[in-house]
Design goal:
By secondary structure, the chain is mainly alpha-helical. Helices cover 65% and strands 0% of the residues.
Length: 139
């Protein structure tokens, strides 16, 4: 049986699972591309099946479940690959003259860590997907 989301919040549950997967990839960041390339398909399908059951129990429309899982999986891998290759999250601009002074000031504050950017990206994505549900998605 899949572990149920705490308090029934499937979005937070999926974010936490994605954060754990990203952290696992980053434990051996140089190996991240190999892990991604050779990730066992059977294990991935087992993971997706579990997450689909949790999503279904949370009334996520059937037609949206795999889109959500594949999207969050790809976001997780992409975020891990950026960190693994040394690409900083939302770093100050190399050529700040191209941008508005207010935006430059915002970027200079450095409020975005890689972890914060990742979790916020997932939170906004999942909120948007949930807002976009429509009766045609229901099965």
């Amino acid at each position: 049986m899949p572990i149920a989301p705490v308090g029934g919040d499937w979005k937070q549950w999926l974010i936490e699972a994605s954060v754990r997967f990203r952290e696992t990839l980053l434990k051996h960041s140089r190996a991240a591309p190999l892990v991604v390339e050779y990730f066992p398909r059977g294990l991935l399908e087992k993971l997706y099946a579990e997450r689909c059951r949790v999503s279904a129990a949370a009334n996520v429309p059937t037609n949206s479940q795999m889109f959500i899982l594949e999207s969050t999986h790809r976001m997780t891998i992409g975020a891990a690959m950026c960190v693994a290759t040394g690409l900083p999250a939302m770093a100050p601009f190399a050529n700040p003259g191209q941008f508005d002074d207010r935006l430059n000031g915002s970027m200079q504050q450095g409020n975005w860590s890689d972890a914060k950017l990742f979790t916020e990206m997932l939170r906004v994505f999942l909120g948007g997907v949930e807002a976009d549900y429509s009766p045609r998605d229901s099965c």
